[in-house]
Amino acid sequence: MLFYMLVLLLANQISISLCLPASSQDESQQCSQLPSIKNPRKCCDIPPVFSNENFGFCNLTDNFQKNTTNGLPDCTKQLCIFKTLKLIKDEDRIDRDALSHFMDVWAEANPDFASIVRIGKPRCLEKQIPETHEHCEINQFVSCIATVATIVCPKWIIKDECTSLKNHSDRCAKYFLH
């Protein structure tokens, strides 16, 4: 659950335009920013992706340290988790084959959430997302897959502010998923 919190916090802070295909300007602009939600992790009942041991080994907790320039977690923390799971090559590059396999194994263990992997792999892993000086490759991937998870969440928890996030996802999925 901790990873999902991290993922949704990233998605909440980064525009989905990183992965949003070009479409009708007005509607896609409305869909390019997720609604502001205090605690987005409570909106989708997604199983953990990484273990508590991974987080503990890399000193990641609920109060992860954010980079003060862009609000994202320091890439070194996520890099640690990816290295621990052997999902990195050349010191800091995502090993796309290893991560693809990791995603497949997770989807097999969590079949209700396989759509996240089915849609997320071509959009976030197979397609090269351009890096910026503010976002490392891992943060780019995590942000993109978090957006996919938000858009296609199969187990919404509809209460409080989650309704606006679900409505946004329902309305904007047609632009994101075509």
Descriptive report:
52% of the residues lie in helices and 2% in strands. The chain is mostly helical and 178 residues long. The chain has a single domain, classed as Orthogonal Bundle (Recoverin, domain 1), CATH 1.10.238. The chain has a two-stranded antiparallel sheet. The protein is globular. Residues 1-24 and 62-69 have low confidence and may be disordered.
Q: What are its keywords?
A:
two-stranded antiparallel sheet; mainly alpha; globular; disordered N terminus; 8 helices; 178 residues
Give a quick rundown of the structure:
This protein has 178 residues and is mainly α.
Number of domains: 1
Strand content: under 5%
Mean pLDDT: 78
Instruction: Please identify the top-level CATH class.
Output: Mainly Alpha
The N- and C-terminal alpha carbons lie at a distance of: 29 Å
Briefly note the structural class of the backbone: mainly alpha
Helix coverage percent of residues?
Answer: 40-55%
Order of helices and strands: HHHHEEHHHH
Architecture (CATH level 2) name:
Orthogonal Bundle
- By DSSP, the count of extended strands is 2
Radius of gyration: 15 Å
CATH topology: Recoverin, domain 1
| Broad shape | globular
The side-by-side strand order for the widest beta sheet comes to: 1-2
User: Which stretches are poorly predicted, pLDDT < 50 over at least 5 residues?
Assistant: 1-24, 62-69
Largest sheet: 2 strands, antiparallel
Number of helices: 8
Protein name: General odorant-binding protein 66-like
Keywords: Signal
Signal peptide: 1-17
Organism: Papilio xuthus (Asian swallowtail butterfly)
